[in-house]
Amino acid sequence: MGSRDMTVESGNDDIDVLVTGFGPFGNNRINPSHLIASSLPSSFTTKKFGRVNIIKASPLPVHYEAVRDLIPKLLFSNGSMGNISTVPQNNTSASPSPRRNPTTTTDKPIDKPRYDIVLHIGMAPGRKYFTLEKKAHRDGYNAKDEDGDSLEDDTFFRDEFNAPELLKPGFDTDDLWRRWKSELLQEDVRPSNDAGRFLCEFLYYTSLVEYWRRDPSLNRPVMFLHVPGRIEDIDIATGRKVAMGLIGAMVESLKGADTGGVAPRS
Fold first, then answer.
1. For the chain, is the Cβ count within 10 Å smaller at the N or the C terminus?
2. 3 DSSP 8-state letter
3. pLDDT tens sequence across 38-90
4. Are 123 and 32 a contacting pair, CB within 8 Å?
5. pLDDT, tens digit, 9 for 90 and up, residues 213-252
6. Which burial class, exposed, middle or buried, applies to 126 when counting CB atoms under 10 A from its CB (0-12, 13-18, 19+)?
7. What residues have CB less than 8 Å from 33, skipping those under 6 apart?
8. Where are the strands (E) in the chain, listed by range?
9. In the predicted model, what is the mean pLDDT of residues 135-156?
10. pTM of this prediction?
11. Is residue 213 a contact partner of residue 84, using CB atoms and an 8 Å limit?
C-alpha cells in the first residue's frame, strides 16, 4: 500500500478498527458500502505501528431509530441510550471542555470504547468520487428512511443530552485528507463539509455524540467515508483500496509522534 508498507499477516493485537457499511435502501438492493467493508482484510501490519485488526460489522439498517438504538451498544462496552454522565448545560458548540472526571448518574462505571478507530462507510448515489466527511449535524433529517420515517420534529439528542448542533471528529481532517490523498494518486478522493442529512450523516453524528456525551473532552476517533454507488468488481476493488488507504492514514494520525495522537477539535 505505497509508503506505508502494509501487508496482511497475523500477529499480536495492536489497533482495533471497526468498519461499518449499510444494507439496502431505495432501488439500491445491493449496497456498495457493505461490499467494500466486507472485502477488507481481517488485519494488516505496519512497520511503524504493528498490527491493525479490522472488525467488520453486519450491514446497518437504513432506519433512524434502529441506528440510534444500535450505535451505543456497538461502540461502547456498557452501551446505553440512558444518561451516562453530566455534561455542561447550554453547550451549543463542539468545543472540548477541560479534561475532568464526569459525574455518573448510576452506580455503573463509565464504559470504555470498544475500538480504537471507527470508520463508517456509506453510499452516495450518482457520485463518481470518494469523500471524507468532516462534520455532522444534529438536526435536519427530514428525508424518510426505509420504513418511511423521518426525524423532522425529533429533539432527542438536544433534550436528552443537550448535545451540540454540530460535532466534528477528533482527527485533524485536513491533515488526514493529505495523508490519505498522498497514497491514492489515481483515485478521486475529496474532503467534504456536507454529509447529506440522511442516514449516513445521522449515523456519523450518532457515533460522535456517543463519545461526546460521556465526556466532551474525550477523543472522538470516528470518520465517515462516502463511496460511489457502483457495484461492479472493479468498483469494489477501488473502494477497498480507498478504504484501506484511509484506515492507514487514520492509524498514522492516531499514533503520529508529531501530534501525540488526536484530540477533540472544535
1. C
2. G
3. 999 999 998 888 999 999 999 999 999 999 999 999 999 887 655 544 333 33
4. yes
5. 999 998 999 999 999 999 999 999 999 999 999 999 999 9
6. exposed
7. 21, 22, 121, 122, 123, 227
8. 15-20, 43-46, 50-56, 117-123, 130-133, 136-137, 166-167, 189-192, 222-227
9. 97
10. 0.84
11. yes
Which residue is associated with the grid cell 459525574?
Answer: 103
Pairwise CA distance, residues 193 & 42, whole Å: 30
Cβ atoms 147, 66 nearer than 8 A = no
Residue 57 grid coordinates? 460489522
pLDDT at 81: 59
E strands present in 109-204: 117-123, 130-133, 136-137, 166-167, 189-192
